[in-house]
Amino acid sequence: MTGADAPQAVPDGSLPGPDGAPRCPWALSAPDYLAYHDDEWGRPVHGDDALFERLCLEAFQSGLSWITILRRRPGFRTAFAGFRIAEVAGFTDADRERLLADPGIIRNRAKIDATLANARVLADWAPGELDELIWSHAPDPAGRPVPKVLADVPAITPESTALSKALKKRGLRFVGPTTAYALMQACGLVDDHLETCVARSALQGREEPRDQPRPAPRPATTLPPRALTGPDT
Fold first, then answer.
1. DSSP code string of the chain
2. Which of 36, 105, 125, 172 would be 129's cystine partner, CB 3.0–4.6 Å?
């Protein structure tokens, strides 16, 4: 872990962004992170194909920095037919070889094979079944303490462990509890924005209107939760 991927010695609490609004520190390390933090992370995601995409990308991220996946997301979407489950389920051996040679994605054989296998499993599910299963594991927000510092944000919870077990029981691969929790964070099942973060206010409908374009981000500070982890299968 070196360079921009190395956490820096900064306070854990929210930091003022380039527009002066407080944000989770990891959002300020790159333009990609700033936009993802403000516009996507923690916002509810529904739909089988949309959730399949997030599940796949979180699996590909295992052992890597999330920025690596985020910057390759357009390539992933092209390579995997927009993560439309029915189409990916129909990929052939030739498609697999194409993916293994595609420099626009992470060419990890085990993760590619898991993605194709998961699509074939999900293709037999009823419409909305993946959405229902995932969202059935969303915890009651009233029972979750609001994180004040990054150290308050967990990597695994009882709900993510239960979700991981449920997905594995149904035949899905590369869905360990850490991957499951990252999915829950990304898709809005939980809100792990720090207490004073402007994005948390936005999710609760209290965001002040922005009249100016988003300024450039500050230099790197620290990484998002689960930015660099070991394998989680």
1. --GGGSPPS--SS-EE-TTS-EE-GGGGS-HHHHHHHHHTTTS---SHHHHHHHHHHHHHHTTSBHHHHHHHHHHHHHHTGGG-HHHHHT--HHHHHHHHT-TTS---HHHHHHHHHHHHHHTTSPTTHHHHHHHTTPPPGGGSPPPSSGGGS-S--HHHHHHHHHHHHTT--S--HHHHHHHHHHTTSS--S-TT-HHHHHHTT-PPPP-SPPPPPPSP--PPTTSB-----
2. 125
